[in-house]
Each structure stands twice: as structure tokens, then as C-alpha cells.
Amino acid sequence: RFLRLAGCLGAAAGTEEEQAKNFQWGLHKSTLNHLMCMQFTDVAQVANAARNYEILHERDDDDAERPDKR
Q: H/E/C letters for each residue in 4-67?
């Protein structure tokens, strides 16, 4: 959706780096906090990093729920 909206706005949406920064601000707070110190060149990089972080975070939550798992 973000890319579709940016496509409609054309140049007003900013450069790819500006779009990436704006997309980053729309992430869930815990994901945003993790990715804030990283710089991305486009929205796809932000989306991939956020997805990877959330996958790892889900695994951590699963492990915490099942302490008997070894």
C-alpha cells in the first residue's frame, strides 16, 4: 500500500531514501526501535529488515512460552 501511494504522489513522495525513512516511522514501536539506528536506501530494505526482526522476535516469544523446549 505504501508503494502504491508513493507511486501516485510521484516526486512529492520524495527520494527512495526519504520514502524508506517515512515507511520506517510507520512500523510497530518495538520494530521501529530496533531499526532506528540503521539506514536504508529503499522501502524494500526496510520491509525485509522489519520482517526478519519480527520473525526472530516471534521465535524468542515461542521459546519463552515453552521453557521445557531444548
A: HHHHHHHHHHCCHHHHHHHHHHCCCHHHHHHHCCCCCCCHHHHHHHHHHHHHHHHHHHHHHHCC
How many other CB atoms are there within 10 angstroms of residue 55's CB atom? 9
Q: Give the CA distances from residue 14 to residues 2, 26, 60, 69, 70, in Å, rounded to whole numbers and listed in that order.
A: 13, 16, 36, 48, 48
The set of residues, in sequence order, having a beta carbon less than 8 Å from that of 66 and lying 6+ positions away, is: none
Grid look-up 516526486 returns 11
pTM higher than 0.85, yes or no? no
Q: What is the per-residue pLDDT across 11-34, written as a single tens digit (0 to 9) for each?
A: 777 888 988 888 898 899 999 999
- Report DSSP state, residue 68: T
